[in-house]
Design goal:
The chain has a domain at 12-56 and 70-79. Helix 1 runs parallel beside helix 3 (68-79). By secondary structure, it is an alpha+beta fold. The mean pLDDT is 96. It is built from 3 helices and 4 strands, in the order E-H-E-H-E-E-H. Strand 3 (57-60) and strand 4 form a beta hairpin.
Amino acid sequence: MSKKLELYYYPECPYCQRVLTAMRKNHWQGIELKNIHADPVADATLVRVGGKHQVPCLFVDGDPMYESLDIIAWLERELG
């Protein structure tokens, strides 16, 4: 896969944990993690580029995707 993948999240969010657990379970690699509580630049980017302050958000080549189950389904299709 040659797409740039960035997951914007924060650790206390249960929906983010759902995505992170699926990533670990399926050994999905190549997804850059951006903790919006630890990284103010990531937090600002999430709102500026994505248009809202909602996590989890998976940016696929700069395009935002929201909703944990949608993100997991997409990753399953693309990464197996």
